[in-house]
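TL;DR need structure tokens for one chain.
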Amino acid sequence: MDTTPLFIRAEWDEEASVWVATSDDVPGLATEEATVEALITKLKIIIPELLDANGIHVKQGIPFEVMTR
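>> reply
TL;DR here they are.
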């Protein structure tokens, strides 16, 4: 895997009052948190786990960008 940052979308769910993250770059990614900061912290943990589960072996510190709206 190259070092191009992964693209993560984070959208505010008004009804649930959480940020929901999804990505075409990370198969299976669908997670939520109450704040963007907590979401980013969670993404640092689950992105490598999901990539590994999908047979994409990477080193720690995978770069990613989060677009919020």
